[in-house]
Amino acid sequence: MKAAFFRGWGLLLVVGGFVGACAASPDVGTGGGSPNSSSSSSSGSGAGDVGGGASGGSGAGGEDLCAMDCSTIVPPDCHQAVCNDGSYPGVVGACVVVPAANGTSCDDGQFCTTADTCQNGSCVGGPQNDCGMAPPECTAITCDETTDSCGTTPLQNGDPCTPSDLCLVGATCVNGLCAGGTPNDCFFQPVPNECYESVCNPQNGICEPVVGNEGEPCVDLTTPCLVGKTCTSGMCGGGTPKDCSQLTQGCVLGVCDANQGGMCVAQAVGQGMACDDLDSCTVGEICDMGTCGMGTPITACVDNDACCAPGCDETNDSDCAKEEYSQSFPQGTVSQTSQQCVDWQTFSAQLTGAFTAVTIRGSQDPVGVTCNVPSMATQLCNALNTKTVVSGLNCNGRVWNVGDCGPTVGYEINSRTTSGDCSCDTSYTVRPCINNLNWG
Question: Is residue 31 within 8 Å of 45, Cβ to Cβ?
Answer without folding.
Answer: yes
